[in-house]
Amino acid sequence: MILDPIHWAALGVMGPLLAGLVAMEGRPRAIRLGLLAGIGSSVAATAGLWVAVSLDGPLRHPLGGWGIPLGIELYADGLSVLMLAMTALVGTAVSLYSTAYFGDISQRSVRDSPAGRGARFFAPLWLFLWGSLNGIYLSGDIFNLYVLLEIMGLSAAAMVTLAVTSQATVAGMRYLVISLVGSMFFLLGVALLYIVGGSLSMERLATLDLAGPLPAIALGLMTLGMAAKTALFPIHGWLPPAHAAAPAPGSAILSALVVKGSFYIIVRLWVHVFGGGAREGLLVLGILGGIAVIWGSIMALRQLSLKRLIAYSTVAQLGYLFIMFPLLFPAGGGWSPDAWSGGLYHALSHAVAKAAMFLAAGSMTYAVARDDIRAISGVAHRLPMTFFAFGLGGLSLAGIPPSGGFVAKWLLLRSAVEQGGWGWAVLITVGGLLTLAYVLMVLRYAVDQTEEPEAFREVPRRMEWAAMSLALIALLLGVRAAEPLSLLEAGGIVPWR
Amino acid sequence: MTPLALYTAAGVGLFAAGLWGVVTRAHLFWKVLGINIMGGGIFLILLAAPPRLDPLHADPVPQAMVLTGIVVAVAATAVALGMALRVAARTGRPFLDEDVPNRSAGEDDPGSGRE
Amino acid sequence: MTPVLDWEFLPLLVVLSSFVPGVWIMFLREEQEALRSSLNLIGAVAKVVLVGLMLRGVGAGAVYEWRLQVLPGLELSLIGDALALLFVTLSAVLWLVTTVYAIGYLKDSPNRTRFFSFFSLCVTATTGLAMAGDLFTFVIFYEALTWATYPLVVHRGTPEAIQAGRLYLIYTLTAGAALVLGAVWFQVEAGTVAFAPGGVLEMAAVEEAPVRFFSLFLVLLAGVAVKASFFPVHGWLPIAMVAPAPVSALLHAVAVVKAGAFGVVRLLHSLFGIEVAWEMGAAGLVAGLAAFTIIYGSIRALVQDDLKRLLAFSTVSQLSYIALGVAFLTPMAQTGGLVHLVHQGIMKITLFFCAGVLSETLQVKKVSQMAGVARRMPLTMLAFTVAALGMIGIPPIAGFLSKWYLGVGALDAGAVWVIPVLLASSLLNAAYFLPVIRTAYFDDPDPEGWDDKGRSRWFEADWRLVVPTVVTALLALASGLFGGIPWSPLGWAELIVDRSIL
Predict the structure, then answer these.
(1) B21 located within any domain
(2) B84 chain-A contacts, CB cut-off 8 A
(3) Chains A, C in contact: 3+ Cβ pairs under 8 A?
(4) Which pLDDT score is estimated for B103?
(5) Considering its fold, how many domains does chain B have in total?
(6) For residue range A272-301, what is the model confidence (pLDDT) as tens digits?
(7) Crossing angle, helix C398-412 and helix C378-392, to 10 degrees?
């Protein structure tokens, strides 16, 4: 049997979902097996598609005979593979981390405690989430996107409530409501687009050159829904409590990966399906992103909880992703490849760096059972590697070289300066400084060794190493950027028309 | 006004009414219900989509979408209601309170819990 | 002639020779002292040897280039040419000396693992930026330097140190942000960020949009001026004096401030081109700022009682000689500026070493406590005197040559105003250094005020403190005495100017 490259895509979606079912069984061995299968299928799918897309360009595959013009299909191009790779990379590290973080659930006492219940359900939820994310990146039609978004939203909200505090429960519930309403907006947009265009395929819709008020309304509705899920200012309020309340591996997944899923859909819609849409719309996205950068950073500076600080940082960093939109399509017409590479590279390096930070923060709170910035002074001394991972991740976020964040910032800045967009250039620069301010607020407690932690629990090596490897990858992304970014170009014409 | 246009208008109305409910009602049950009403509105709009190929027969695609959508909505509603019950059980109130009783962070977070 | 070693990755090895020990040490335990010191010393010696190999090659006309593409159009490039080697050699030699000194200075103090790790990383960043072949690489190492030095500045962990570190970061990180913005802007305007002798900008392009290019220059200058401690952005430097003495020595003589000064050289000569820079008024601005800073720093130094603060303000002043020299078009002035990069480094590190010996051995930190200290510490004060006289510009010590070349070069360029600046500065230098020397030699000692840790077997203090101090003082003397031979700093600076201008 000759393996069609598109089977890799099927593996990427179905593998983690099936692995999730295995992990549902709940015994430690099943959980380990499920996670292993999830990692294996995702990594294999990413690698296979990476090769296939680099060699042959975008891949398409109709599902169940519902091809063009209806267009229920799988689709993979360079952007898809980049997002898959990001998910596989971060996902693998988080999976390994989680096996140590939740403790030894083979012991009955651990398994039956409220915390142990959370431990049991983390792996299946995460694997469903993983499958839905891979599906989103591989879906060629907007209705499949809706279905996968719902799987993503449900498992993500449930993951928040794995921490059995009342705060976590409320935060998770709020997240679920926002997420479901966002999906409804998206579905309404899907319905309108189908009525206007008679197709669900994104590629097909892109060729129709949709004009008039109805497609614009559809785009607006879908963007609104996705912006809510991506926590774009001013619909960001749900994110910090939710991301901070989840157990640490969950926080890492939510902040690094889940928000990227809905962000990816906005990119697909605006860049590919609508070919830039209207300049005013792009500007609105960019300005909201700019406000998010400033506001999120200022709020991060005011937090005393380490995980909340990192969560607000996510709000700020997602803002950077939206600054990309007005830069992509310069006022004079045309297309800025720098903004494209820079924006998506930022998405990638943010995912890696943010996951490193959340995992490191998780190790610190694991050690002292306190989520307080002031408590980490002694911890930094005891867990130098974890602290280092946190610092490296933070510096990458702030765009300090050498790091993926620095390359991304360089490209975005270059795009802004080339277009004479000085406002954007200054915003990007000031945002970087604000990021430094809150990263440093944490780092300064490292050199302060006056306080020794009163209680200290040993942190498993695997947790320390998982965070550290991600931090080192964030660093490495600053030295080797050519390969991931060439993928974006190899994946076919950008944008589609 | 054609029946199809009427359906579409009703669908938009339902969507708006559902959204209104989600935004204004504090009780979680109403919020979940509101989301369901929003979904119902969309399904109505989809069913009222003009026939695409053959004017005499309804387009099967929206029907398939509505069927799938209903399945998804049932699942989502079940999860949402379950979580709403959990909220009520843990905070004593079925609302999204900003100031839930502030138990120290991570108190029984599995990662930081200690026997 | 012996064949020249043509390893293109020699510059990379030079960088790695301190990077590898730095990272390795980070994972050592505090009590693994022997291994830690060995790693440090092996790295330092290896670096000196590697630099020696490169010196021989470059002296014979070779250029070492190592590149790694990050993105199409952006690469990490390390180039070992004559100019880079001037700075690299300085760092390598002084790092070796300072390592010995630091091992002695910090014996029995806490957190040495962290200290020596970042100490090595700091030198890694310095050699990296010295050999940076383009602005992109320069920016990377320039920022890395900030992060490598921060843990050293706050090493003691006192509230005062943390406050100083905070200020240091605010200054340098803001500057770093400006430098990144300027670098990107430069790439957009010029299409490249590669350093080239004589600059990469076309005169015609600059004349078309003078305001735009001048703004670009200002942004980039803001980026490098903070580390070069130009007035009015010098404020971090005296406050960073809370750091341990080897750090002050390394920061002030080699790493941070020299990175800034070297940045000014790169900006004027390798990016804009000195002729274009004069035409657009940028070089004039630098010369003026430098001249003002020279006088300003000296005046501030006059009223300091704290020895290290006095030395810090002296650094503010002395550093600007470099910028002043390279801002002129004439070869003599450029030679004077470049050679001062080395001369100031050797002399200032000697002074800081002395200050460290005094504070470590006798707990003497203020000038007013130094009465008669020369009787207890003859070697140290002799070294101090040599370096201080050199700073003033007394022949035959190194500083004299710098000032001579600067003065003659400025006259060649028709900038007569530089002469009074140099004279005034020398007088002011004398006014703040001579009283210190007089106090140390001629006032009656007051051993009650000292907290004497005692002599070592052979020397007046721990040999690891005294020997480096004497060595650098001898270097300062030798650089002045043997300025005429090709391998002296002056000879090398002349080689650089010859090669890039002729």
Answers:
(1) yes
(2) 173
(3) yes
(4) 47
(5) 1
(6) 888 887 888 999 999 999 999 999 999 999
(7) 0
What are the tens digits of pLDDT across the range A372-383? 777 777 777 778
Is A483's Cβ below 8 Å from some Cβ in C? no
Q: Does A433 touch chain C (CB under 8 A)?
A: yes
Contact between residue A82 and residue A76 where contact means Cβ atoms under 8 Å apart: no
- Among the residue ranges A197-201, A234-238, A254-258, A341-345, the one predicted with the least confidence is A197-201
Is A200 at the interface with chain B, CB within 8 A?
A: yes
CATH number for position B82? 1.10.287.3510
Q: Is residue C410 a part of any domain in this protein? A: yes
Q: Are A172 and A254 in contact (CB under 8 A)?
A: no
Distance CA C64, CA C56 (A): 12
Report pLDDT digits (tens) over A237-280.
899 999 998 889 999 999 999 999 999 999 999 998 888 878 88
Reported as a single tens digit per residue, the pLDDT across A50-99 is 988 888 888 887 776 665 555 578 888 889 999 999 999 999 999 999 98
Using the Cβ of B88 and the Cβ atoms of chain A, whether some distance falls under 8 Å is answered with: no
Nearest to B101 among A103, A143, A166 (CB): A166
DSSP-assigned states of every residue in C209-220:
SHHHHHHHHHHH
Angle made by CA atoms C60, C64, C70, in degrees to the nearest 5:
170
Distance of CA A106 to the CA centre of its chain: 31
List, for chain C, all residue ranges whose pLDDT scores fall below the cut of 70.
1-6, 501-502
Please give the residue range of the domain that contains residue B44. 3-50+58-91
For an interface test with A, give the residue of B29, B63, B104, B112 to mutate (most A CBs within 10 A): B112
Q: What's the predicted TM-score (pTM) here? A: 0.91
Interchain CB contact of A481 with C (< 8 Å): yes
Interface check B33 vs A, CB under 8 A: no
Counting the structural domains of chain C, the total is 1
Domain range for C402 is 281-502
- Residue A299's alpha-carbon distances to A296, A303, A309, A314, A365, in angstroms, are 5, 7, 8, 11, 21
* pLDDT reported for residue A145: 94
Cβ–Cβ contact A180 with B under 8 A: yes
Flag whether residue A361 sits within 8 Å of chain B, measured between CB atoms.
Answer: no
Asked if A191 is an interface residue toward chain B (Cβ–Cβ < 8 A), one would say yes
Q: What is the H or E stretch that residue A132 is in? A: helix A114-138
Residues of chain B with confidence (pLDDT) below 70: 1, 98-115
**Would you call C187 and A440 a contact, using CB atoms and an 8 Å cutoff?**
no
Chain B residues with CB under 8 Å of A115 CB are 108-110, 113
ipTM for this model: 0.89
Å between C315 CA and nearest CA of chain A: 27
Chain A residue numbers touching B97 (CB-CB < 8 A): 170
Q: Determine the pLDDT at residue C218.
A: 93
CB contact under 8 A, B100 and A170: yes
Contacts of A429 in chain C (CB under 8 A): 177-178, 180-181
pLDDT reported for residue C116? 87
In this predicted model, what pLDDT tens digit does every residue of A155-189 receive, in sequence order? 999 999 888 788 888 999 999 999 999 999 999 99
| Residue C306 covered by a domain | yes
Domain-located, residue B101:
no
Distance from CA of A47 to the nearest CA of B (A): 31
Question: What six digits make up the tokens of A387?
Answer: 């602290």
The label of the residue with tokens 């310095």 reads C126
Report the candidate in C317, C337, C330 with the shortest Cα–Cα distance to residue C392.
Answer: C317
A-proximal residues of B, 44-63, CB under 8 Å: 45-46, 49-50, 52, 61-62
Q: Helix, strand, or coil here: C155?
A: coil
Where on the phi/psi map is residue A57: left (φ > 0), alpha (ψ -120 to 50), or beta?
left
Give the per-residue pLDDT at C228.
85
Is C359 a member of any domain? yes
B113 located within any domain: no
User: Rounded CA gap, A42 and C3, in Å?
Assistant: 54
Do the domain assignments include residue C160?
no
**B105:A194 CB<8 A:** no
Q: Is residue B109 part of a domain?
A: no
- Residue A3 has a pLDDT of 65
